[in-house]
Amino acid sequence: MAVQTPRQRLANAKFNKNNEKYRKYGKKKEGKTEKTAPVISKTWLGILLFLLVGGGVLQLISYIL
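-> C-alpha coordinates emitted (65 positions)
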Protein backbone atom coordinates (compact mmCIF):
# COMPACT_ATOMS: atom_id res chain seq x y z
CA MET A 1 0.00 0.00 0.00
CA ALA A 2 1.34 3.41 -0.96
CA VAL A 3 2.00 6.18 1.51
CA GLN A 4 -0.68 8.87 1.55
CA THR A 5 0.16 12.48 0.94
CA PRO A 6 -1.34 15.09 3.29
CA ARG A 7 -3.74 16.16 0.53
CA GLN A 8 -4.96 12.58 0.06
CA ARG A 9 -5.31 12.13 3.81
CA LEU A 10 -7.53 15.24 4.05
CA ALA A 11 -9.61 14.11 1.07
CA ASN A 12 -10.09 10.64 2.61
CA ALA A 13 -11.08 12.15 5.95
CA LYS A 14 -13.65 14.38 4.25
CA PHE A 15 -15.03 11.42 2.27
CA ASN A 16 -15.32 9.27 5.41
CA LYS A 17 -17.03 12.07 7.30
CA ASN A 18 -19.71 12.39 4.59
CA ASN A 19 -20.26 8.64 4.32
CA GLU A 20 -20.34 7.95 8.05
CA LYS A 21 -23.92 9.28 8.22
CA TYR A 22 -25.21 6.62 5.84
CA ARG A 23 -23.28 3.55 6.94
CA LYS A 24 -25.55 2.69 9.86
CA TYR A 25 -28.93 3.29 8.25
CA GLY A 26 -28.33 3.51 4.51
CA LYS A 27 -29.25 6.46 2.36
CA LYS A 28 -32.51 8.21 3.05
CA LYS A 29 -35.20 7.21 0.59
CA GLU A 30 -37.20 10.13 -0.66
CA GLY A 31 -40.26 10.16 -2.85
CA LYS A 32 -41.97 7.14 -1.36
CA THR A 33 -45.44 7.82 -0.13
CA GLU A 34 -47.54 5.73 2.15
CA LYS A 35 -50.53 4.05 0.61
CA THR A 36 -53.73 5.18 2.26
CA ALA A 37 -56.96 3.27 2.32
CA PRO A 38 -59.73 4.60 0.07
CA VAL A 39 -62.28 6.86 1.72
CA ILE A 40 -65.17 4.59 0.71
CA SER A 41 -65.04 0.79 0.68
CA LYS A 42 -65.39 -1.21 -2.52
CA THR A 43 -68.67 -2.70 -1.33
CA TRP A 44 -70.33 0.69 -0.84
CA LEU A 45 -68.91 1.92 -4.12
CA GLY A 46 -70.45 -1.10 -5.88
CA ILE A 47 -73.83 -0.51 -4.24
CA LEU A 48 -73.86 3.17 -5.22
CA LEU A 49 -72.80 2.35 -8.77
CA PHE A 50 -75.54 -0.29 -9.02
CA LEU A 51 -78.17 2.18 -7.81
CA LEU A 52 -77.08 4.94 -10.18
CA VAL A 53 -76.68 2.77 -13.27
CA GLY A 54 -79.78 0.71 -12.48
CA GLY A 55 -81.85 3.86 -11.98
CA GLY A 56 -80.58 5.28 -15.25
CA VAL A 57 -81.43 2.06 -17.11
CA LEU A 58 -84.95 2.05 -15.64
CA GLN A 59 -85.42 5.69 -16.69
CA LEU A 60 -84.35 4.85 -20.25
CA ILE A 61 -86.71 1.87 -20.39
CA SER A 62 -89.66 3.94 -19.10
CA TYR A 63 -88.82 6.75 -21.55
CA ILE A 64 -88.71 4.36 -24.52
CA LEU A 65 -91.97 2.61 -23.59
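The mean pLDDT is 84.
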